[in-house]
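Quick one:
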Amino acid sequence: MTQSVQPFGVRIRGTGSCVPERRLTNEDLSKLVDTNDEWIVQRTGIHERRVCDLSTEGTFTMARDALKNALDAAEMKGSDLDLIIVGTVTAEMTCPSVAARVGAALGAVPAAAFDLSAACCGFVYSINLAQALIQSGQFRSIGVVGAECMSSIVDYSDRTVSILFGDAAGAAILTRDPDPRIGCMYSTMGSDGSGWSSLYIPRRLQEVPVSDIDNPIALGHLRMNGKEVFRFAVTKFRDVIEDAMHKTGLTPESVGQVICHQSNIRIIESAREKLGLPHEKVYINIDRFGNSSAGSVGLCLDQLWRAGKIEKERPFVMVAFGGGLTWASGVWRV
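Output:
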């Protein structure tokens, strides 16, 4: 006896985000390291970024508030969730997970909960996994969060890293839908661990490769080979977007929005120009929020969603790359 599996759609019921109030401007950074506003803007497109007050704020508080905002937008309660996934590399503790603490804070017990580590791809990896779990029929409603307190792992005595990163969280509520046409049309995730030392957070000296042994950045803080990451990203970013559009038949005219991880304005603009995408279809907020790693795509999604720029008539694309080295995309129809 065989039993057919009913295909399910996956609906984004609501989105939310959270950023700290404190702004760290380029002028503020110029007082900490040898840099200036013109140098930073020319190379990154960033004017300011948000940073936590680490005495009261962090990955947990931002993830909690972003998911609460998404639940409110979806007109749901924490108890309606079956699962919470938090994409992050800046969890305050490895045990318990940020997701479990968020679930307890929002009344989501006994929902399953776990953190996912994929660096800047954390939100896209998490939402791709969540939609697959719902489509499988195992879950009905999942809260997905990308959250990073990058200020907790940035060495502010080093200008190559400190100028880039900010703190933020973005969230989405996914629910099962009877219409199988709703949801993710195509997704991909990949990695190349051979490039791990281009972007990493060593905790112990024995984790530092010989080639990086003289790096002055303190242990426990993010280290980055900017040239290697840029070389990888500028090609991979374009290739991943191109692949997603090709596999779904989308064109620059038919796509709604391309939501890129806010890594560097030069990387985003290079991909946009080579793919022939108009400015209004590639959202930019890196100038105000910096690179918030796993928080960036979810933050962009929430800002676009609330501004009414996610259209039912036009699918949108999410794309990211990050440490690992990792990359991911997802094409969604709402």
